[in-house]
Design goal:
The chain is mainly α. It has helices spanning 2-68, 71-78, 82-88, 92-107, 116-131, 134-145, 150-159, 163-178, 187-205, 211-223.
Length: 237
């Protein structure tokens, strides 16, 4: 009888210990999940803050230009401490570079319509939308209005990299693969020609980049301005 009572007592103790361990494990699991969720929320808040700082930076570029842009002013307008900005971007150039890269990644697209003409029209229309946006105006001001400063020259040297270069190139390289463009086409020259035409239309002519104008540009770029048998240029005596 005593032995049976002892066994029952041991079983109750084991059961209680098991329940306690289960409760401890559950509590640890809840705390762990809460910790993961807290870290995830912190990362999300950090992402939101970073994007806000970069957006304010681009807006300030369009408003005051690169030389007059102030990191403390950016921090104040973004609602963050300037030390937090300097901790992530130690120099103004690094901050501006990050802001323009982020904006261009959000804006630059690689059309894949399956036809050279519509791809070119899409690229030109996207560029027109970009350079007339606050982001694009900030970039244009940085590259042209402030282009003679050492900061602007250093920044321009790194802008034509990453998605801003790769995505449009990819569209034209697909056109070469399809046979829409001849092999050996200077893809970058074609892109620069299209970009130059769009910027001249927007900033010099002050004209609309509408469907009719895009069609004319596409025909010029696709077929060339010369006839099939261009005349030789006469040499000057």
């Amino acid at each position: 009888m005593a032995a049976a009572l002892n066994r029952n007592h041991e079983l109750r103790c084991v059961g209680a210990a098991g329940a306690l361990q289960l409760r401890v494990a559950r509590t640890r699991g809840v705390r762990k999940n809460r910790g993961v969720a807290k870290r995830r929320r912190a990362v999300q808040r950090g992402d939101v803050v970073v994007r806000r700082v970069l957006e304010v930076t681009v807006a300030e570029l369009g408003r005051v230009g690169l030389e007059r842009l102030s990191v403390p002013e950016v921090a104040e307008r973004a609602g963050v401490n300037k030390t937090s900005v300097y901790r992530r971007w130690p120099t103004k150039q690094l901050l501006v570079k990050a802001a323009l890269e982020q904006s261009m990644e959000d804006s630059v697209q690689a059309p894949d319509t399956g036809a050279l003409g519509s791809d070119l029209a899409s690229l030109a229309a996207s560029l027109a939308d970009f350079i007339t946006s606050p982001t694009g105006l900030g970039l244009v001001r940085t590259v042209f209005a402030d282009g003679d400063s050492p900061e602007a020259r250093a920044l321009k040297a790194t802008l034509w990299e990453g998605p801003a270069r790769e995505l449009p190139r990819a569209a034209l390289e697909r056109a070469i693969a399809r046979g829409d463009l001849k092999a050996g086409t200077d893809v970058e020259l074609l892109l620069f020609t299209a970009a130059g035409a769009v910027m001249h239309r927007v900033f010099v002519e002050r004209g609309p980049v509408d469907d009719a104008w895009l069609q004319s540009l596409v025909e010029l770029l696709s077929h060339g301005a010369a006839s099939e048998q261009p005349r030789k240029v006469a040499r000057r005596s």
